[in-house]
Each structure stands twice: as structure tokens, then as C-alpha cells.
Amino acid sequence: GQMDEGTELSLSIAQVVQRLRGSHLHSQIERQAKECLHQPEIKLESLKEDVRSFLKTSGWERKLQNAVYRELQLPPSHPAAPPEHLKEPLAYMRKAQANWEKRILKSLNSMSTELGLPLARKRPAVEQKELTNKWNEMGTDEPDLSRFRPVYAPKDFLEVLINLRNPNHDCSEDVSARSHWGLIQVPLNVRDIPQLRRAYSELNLTTGQLGIDDHAHMHPGNEKKLVEEQDSAAAQQYSRQGCPTGLRADLWALILNATNQPQDVMHYEQLKAGVIQHDLLVDNLIYKDVKLTASNDDYYFVFEDFLYQVLLCFSRDTTVLEHFKYNSATPPKSYIQGNMGNEDCAVVYPPNGVIPFHGFSMYVAPLCFLYNEPSKLYSAFREMYIRHFFRLHSISSSSSGIVSLCLQFEKLLQTHLPQLFYHLRQIGAQPLRIAFKWMVRAFSGYLSTDQLLLLWDRILGYDSLEVVAVLAAAVFAFRAENLMEVTSLASAEVCLFHIGLLCVCVCVYVFETLISVLSLSPTYSWKAVNSS
């Protein structure tokens, strides 16, 4: 009822107020308000109004609005619900996630033991000085990383997802589960095409779409105004139709509220100092991952040094721990300095609670095209991670979580391209085995950068990763004719290997074709989709 909604609203207001109360912004606004008291236009008899209008004209009110907006983007915590419910409401998902975490941590600990390397050590002064000097060219270093292997790769994670089951759910009774041809066997609600059409109404062909038609949907000058007005909510709405290349960096920073204030720069410098003081075992995993992925990528190899800087700082950033309130994962704990089993000596490791896996650096790489100032690049990445990317490698029932994305991808294919799905399944080429690696990385490293950024525009604009699943299905639709000819998983992989060459016409147009053609006439054959 009415009362509940009111109560809920006042609770979430109270939460936002409480979260902002301790923030740097709060103390800045307080200081501004005190300082403005000395100004002649502030009169004692209209003190409250005068201070308020001063804060408005000097831009502080907008800053506060954007900060509130950012808080509202994060999942709310309901005071009545137990904290684990905010992390993940379904017990079997929580359990699966906990078991998966044990495996990862075991893998990390055994690497430490086998290689005889501590999880963390203080660097001697000489080494600290060396690292300080070569901070901007860490890529020139060629440490021997042959002994290090990634703690896990996406395909290991996929196996875990394929084996997920809801113990309270009897599949034999459920017709829809029985008739599901895919690998994901858990009952989650994912949106079908008509629901997607309603949710993503701005993605239809009648509105100008950036990428096909680079400046149809806004009068020149309007986007600039958006940036000048510094309005996060408006920037987010705008980004749903794709951002113009020249303004994307500013618009994303606004949406993410990654404004690069002096305190952000200071925070980044503190993290950097932490990297220089201590060497962590995970640093080697980061080095190796960058060498294996971004350094071999035609687009991203030039950013190698930026990637080391951002990822090494990220692993030390304890503010990232905040997001575990609404992440189904729990930060891993380890025993430092050989105090095995002594709970008091257990610390969160790495300090940010995130163990990188094979391909992790690809979450940062595309952002290097937008931001060339390390602290700004860092803030944008951290916000992208705690809002979106963490969902791609933790087990949860969230509609943006990887389990839902896999299920959504499979259902879209099975509903709209049944012949193709059936054929691939018969030859032992389950579509998810091919598409999983794209989805886990939100397509980073698989699409050319300009296309990828258009996809990420939508993730930010809609505050959801669903578009990733739809795009994965769209790629199969686009290649359906060729895929009907393949006879093995390997040849299907080859057929889809060059998705990097697909342009926005797939990102946007096939998305459209899938959604418009198919929902107008479900019996449409895949050939028609293909030739359109």
C-alpha cells in the first residue's frame, strides 16, 4: 500500500543522507557555506535562503544532486532484510558462489606455496626507488612469468554455471525447463523480446541511432549544454542512443560521477604509494594477464603501462570493499605471515577483495581510449566495476548477473532461431560455449573499439548489462546462414572468430532486426533475418 511506499522512500532518503554525511563532498559544502557567510550579499534575516542560493549559483547544488544520483544507482539496502539478502536472495546461489570462492582462494594459496612466494611482502628501499622511477614504463620490464598461471579462466567459471541447480525445483514437472535446450538449468525470469522492446524503447530505428547516423538525434550544441550543466541523470538518458565520440569521455564521467576532484587525485596517489611499498602475489597475475591479453591486441597494446598502473592501484583500493554489500561475492581472506588458522590474523586479500582472472585487464583497456590522465581513468574504471563488471564474474540471480545473461542469450536463440540452435546443439557446439567469453568481458577485445564503446554507452544508459546478452544473440543471427553449414564446435568458433569486423550495423541494426522483425512475425525464418 501507500504507506509502504512512503516508508520505503523515507528509508532510502535516510540511507542516502547517511552515506553522504561522511563524504568529502559533505565537508566541502559545509566549508563553502561557512565561507560564504562573510560575503556582503548574505543577509542575516534571510540567511537560509541566501546560503542556499549561493550554493546553487556556485554549482555545489548540482554536485550534490549528482552525488545523490550516484547513490541511487547502487542497489538499496532494505533495513528489514538480512544483509545476505541484499547480496543474493537465493540461498542456493549464495552457496554456489561461496564454493566457487573457496576454489579460487585454494588455487591462489597453492600457487603461493608451490612457488614459495608470500602473498605480500614489503619492498626493500632499493626496489621501491626502482619502481618509482619506472612507474610510467612498467611494460618494458620482462619478468619471468612462466611459473604463474591465471587463477581461473572464463571456461572454468562456465562449467560452474552449467552445474548450477535449484535443489527445491523439480525440473521434471516444469515443461519450460524440460524443453530448454541450453546449458543453463536454473529457473530465472529473463525478459522476452516484447518485454525487451518496452524496456529499451529508445533503441528502435525511428529514433536516430548513433553509429548508423552519427548526429541525428540531437541538435548540435545540445550535447555541449549537457556537459556544461553537469547533470548526471540527463547524461545517462542521452547515452542510451549512443554518445558522440568527442563528448563520450565527459558524458561517461558525468554518468559515473567520476569527476576527478582533487581528492580523487590524492586517493590515486595514495594507492600508487601502496603499490610502491608492498609487492603482492596478485601483481604477477596482473602482469601476466596484461601480457597475455591487452599486449597482444592491435587496439590496446599501446596502453600497456596505463593498464599496469590502474590494475595495481585497483588491487590496493579498500574503498572497493563497499560494493560487497550488494555483490553476491564475499571478499576472500587469507593468513598473512604464516599464522595459518589464526582467525585474528586473517586479512582481506587482495585488499580490494577482487582476485583477477584471465582477461580481467580487458575491463580497463577500452577506457584508455577515453581518459589519458591516470587518476581519471582510474575513477572511471572503479565506478564501471562496482556498478556493472563485478556482475559478470559472480554467481547471482540479478537480471544483469552472468547467469541471467547466459539464460537470456540461450532463450533468445532458442525462441527466435530454433533451427540454428538445434543444429549447433546436434554437432556438439552449444552456442553458450562460444558466446560466454564475449559476455564475461562485455565484448571487450572481441569488437573493434568504436563498436565496443557504442555497446558500453547502452550499458551505462540503461544501467543494465542485458544488452550484452542481446548482442551475443544478434551476432549468431547475423552469422546464422554460415553457422548452418558448420559441422563442429571448432568450425563454429572459426565462423564467429571475426566478430571484431562486425560494425555497429550488428550492434544496433541486428539488435533492431531481431527485435522488430522477430516480434512482428515469430515464424520468420533465420534466412530472412540474415538477408535483411
From TrEMBL:
Bilayer-spanning residue ranges: 459-478, 490-511
Key words, A-Z: Membrane, Transmembrane, Transmembrane helix
SUPFAM superfamilies: Ypt/Rab-GAP domain of gyp1p
Domain Rab-GAP TBC: 242-463
Keyword Cytoplasm: no
Family matches, as Pfam families: RabGAP-TBC
Chain coiled-coil ranges: none
Highest taxon listed in the record's lineage: Eukaryota
PANTHER family: TBC1 DOMAIN FAMILY MEMBER 19
Protein's UniProt name: TBC1 domain family, member 19
Species name: Mastacembelus armatus (zig-zag eel)
